[in-house]
Amino acid sequence: MYHRQRSDTNQAGIVDELRALGAAVLVVSAVCKFDILVGFRGKNYMFEIKQPGKKLRPAQQEFHDAWRGQIDRVESLEDCLKIMEE
Questions:
Q1: Model confidence over 13-64: pLDDT tens digits?
Q2: Strands 36-40 and 24-27
Q3: What domain count does the chain have?
Q4: Full domain range(s) for residue 43
Q5: For the residues of 20-54, what is the DSSP string, one character each?
Q6: Other CB atoms closer than 10 Å to residue 52's CB: what's the count?
Q7: Which alpha helices (DSSP H) does 1-86 contain, by range?
Q8: Is residue 3, in this structure, part of any structural domain at all?
């Protein structure tokens, strides 16, 4: 069973900023091994938000390694936008 960890302190700001840009943001950290699911301009993005310099926990790293779709570790709105603009 997956137990929810405390959110990184930068998560709320990133979520608010993404929503202000018109993105749909679903916080899924309570049920998933990543933090947010973002819908923007017809595409979906999975992001794990971390504080600068912090690494993924072992279970998160295992999930990221096994996932066969897009999932990214981000630290800021700018990180999200770089990925979403690709």
A1: 999 999 999 999 999 999 999 999 999 999 999 999 999 999 999 999 999 9
A2: antiparallel
A3: 1
A4: 11-84
A5: HTT-EEEE-TTTSSSSEEEEETTEEEEEEE--TTP
A6: 8
A7: 11-20, 58-66, 77-84
A8: no
